[in-house]
Specification:
The protein is an alpha/beta fold and about 575 residues long. The chain has two domains: about 220 residues, no CATH class; about 260 residues, Alpha/Beta hydrolase fold, catalytic domain (Rossmann fold, 3-Layer(aba) Sandwich), CATH 3.40.50. About 40% of the residues lie in helices and about 10% in strands. The strands form four sheets. It has an eleven-stranded mixed beta sheet, sandwiched between helices. The protein has a two-stranded antiparallel ribbon with strand order 3-16.
Length: about 575
């Protein structure tokens, strides 16, 4: 097996380890010499300050701490007793399912089973203690809980070689080769400046991901516009323009042929366009929200209307591009041009940030100052910093899982297209990013009429009457479904909300052919998300057919297919174009 390192002799292992350790020291010295500003300040995110205030608040209620400690000691004694006495009552966490401890080795040895249960029990009480802290502002309490969870996840016995029976077993079987191979992986990741999650040599943009045929038919400094080649004898008169987020690469919607939303949409008889955003560099130093609305979405929309010789198009906004699309629709409404958009679809997008989830813990003065330091010497934010932030929201799956498999077990990187895309980070303009965090996330100005002005227009989302299809992910950790649902309270036109199974990515990229997950719909949209959930009807499988059923009646007559590059807008290059191939 490729992930089964061969055993090595002790002398050979020692020599290899010494060589790798020396190489690692040299790499670290070179890294800090080149990146002195990467050295963290004493408290970069206000972590210690939050921790101190949370500790003081917890100590202010000694009776609660005493009660928690008493219950913990009782449960801990029951756990100990269950291991000493055959047939004793199982501990409170004996049957807890946790994939970190799913391997047989955790149950085969009583000592490791005891360690597993002890950790889960302690974790349970630590998290309960943090969630019940009083005397803190809501934001600081949420931040304290987030930091405690990071600590609890990091301290799992599965994350350390000497307390993980699977790692110990592999070390004995291979004579330590797994640890040597893991160290090589670690040094390679240090050299790359990021943790690799997959075999990146197994994929190439334009070769086996982002392969739907098409042409780049327009470009400016912000984006390339791709028009895809038709595959049906006729197409709907109304074209479709997709705005993916510029904090990621667009090909999350065009992975392999089986998973591609773009390819599927073309097969439904739609003329499909997508914006491929520029990886931010010094040329985008002045870019703000106005730029993404004007130079970006409005320019792309007008170009699509001109190419197809129509008066309106369907548009999709994914994540941050959906947030921006809401502002774009308000600008069009104010200009009397709302009819340019036949319908708007929102994939996991938020406009009201009052319940925006754990990402809010990064949006305070300490967090904003940290971002300012990261962009002090360049007008863009390195996409690897943003990627790490998102990974921290699911640290067990997106950080510690790879620490164990890649560094401790020494497994080969597994080829997975989704993880390849996730690792293909994108820089974003610093000026736009700072303003977005302050105005939209922190101050929630987008939903306050006149709170922000875009292209000279005071934004009022209640003026938007465009028919809208709004999708949220049931397990979304970046744009929580209850936050995405709030969009239904601001637009005044016809609306349909779909709650998809899974999260921010898999909830969107769920083709009908895979028969995965489910979705929930309702003919009424109550004010509260919980009421929608209570009354919604579940349907098995992908929500994509529901979307095309909603879109098709709004798409006009069937017309001849539009071949990209044959009219006024000549082909610049083949899809997926240059912009998406720029890597950090």
């Amino acid at each position: 097996m490729a992930d089964e390192p061969a055993a090595v002799q002790p002398i050979e292992a020692f020599q290899k380890w010494t060589e790798l350790a020396g190489r690692g020291q040299q790499l670290m010295m070179e890294f800090w010499a080149k990146e002195p500003d990467m050295l963290p300040p004493s408290d970069p995110m206000g972590i210690m300050a939050t921790w101190q205030r949370a500790t003081a608040a917890a100590l202010a209620d000694p009776q609660r701490l005493f009660d928690l400690q008493t219950r913990y000691m009782t449960d801990a004694m029951a756990l100990w007793q269950s291991f000493l006495t055959p047939g004793a009552t199982a501990s409170p966490v004996a049957a807890v399912k946790d994939k970190r401890f799913s391997g047989e080795a955790w149950q085969q040895a009583p000592a490791f089973d005891f360690m597993r249960q002890s950790y889960l029990l302690a974790s349970q009480y630590v998290m309960e203690a943090s969630s019940g802290i009083e005397g803190l502002a809501p934001h600081e309490k949420a931040k304290a809980q987030f930091l405690v969870k990071q600590f609890v996840d990091a301290m799992s016995p599965s994350n350390f070689a000497l307390t993980n029976p699977e790692v110990l077993k592999k070390t004995v079987e291979t004579g330590g080769s797994n640890l040597l191979k893991g160290l090589e992986h670690l040094l390679g990741d240090l050299q790359a400046g990021r943790m690799k999650m997959t075999d990146e040599n197994a994929f190439e943009v334009g070769r086996n991901v982002a392969i739907t045929p098409g042409k780049v038919v327009f470009e400016n400094r912000l984006f390339q516009l791709i028009q895809y080649s038709p595959t049906t004898e006729t197409v709907f008169a109304t074209p479709l323009l997709i705005f993916p987020p510029w904090i990621n690469k667009f090909y999350i919607l065009d992975l392999t042929a089986e998973k591609s939303f773009i390819r599927w949409a073309v097969e439904q008889g739609l003329t499909v366009f997508v914006t491929s955003w520029k990886n931010a560099d010094a040329s985008l130093a002045d870019v703000t929200l106005d730029s993404y609305v004007g130079e970006g979405q409005l320019t792309a929309l007008d170009t699509v209307l001109d190419i197809c010789k129509v008066k309106s198009a369907h548009v999709i906004g994914y994540c941050v591009a959906g947030t921006t699309l809401a502002a774009t629709l308000a600008v069009l409404a104010a200009r009397g041009q709302a009819a340019k958009v036949a319908s708007a679809t929102f994939f996991t997008a938020q406009v009201d940030m009052s319940e925006c989830g754990e990402l809010s813990v990064f949006v305070d003065e300490a967090g904003l100052e940290a971002v300012a330091r990261l962009t002090a010497d360049k007008p863009w934010l390195d996409g690897r910093n943003m990627a790490m932030t998102f990974n921290m929201l699911r640290s067990n799956d997106l950080i510690w899982n790879y620490v164990v498999n890649n560094y401790l077990m020494g497994k080969d990187y597994f080829p997975f297209d989704l993880l390849y895309w996730n690792s293909d980070a994108t820089n974003v303009p610093a000026l736009w990013h700072r303003s977005y965090l302050e105005d939209i996330y922190r101050d929630n100005l987008l939903v306050k009429p006149g709170g922000i002005t875009v292209l000279g227009v005071p934004i009022d989302l209640t003026t938007v009457a465009t028919p809208s299809y709004i999708q949220g992910g049931k397990e979304d950790h970046i744009a929580p479904a209850r936050s995405a649902y709030k969009l239904t309270s601001y637009f005044t036109g016809e609306k349909r909300f779909v709650l998809a199974g899974s999260g921010h990515i898999a909830g969107v990229v769920n083709p009908p052919s895979q028969h995965k997950y489910q979705y929930w719909t309702s003919d009424v949209l109550p004010e509260r998300f919980d009421e929608f959930v209570a009354g919604a009807v579940e349907t098995k499988g992908s929500w994509w057919p529901d979307w095309i059923s909603w879109l098709a009646p709004r798409s006009g007559a069937q017309v001849k297919p539009r071949v990209p590059g044959t009219g006024k807008y000549k082909a610049i290059e083949d899809a997926p174009g240059r912009y998406v191939k720029e890597r950090i």
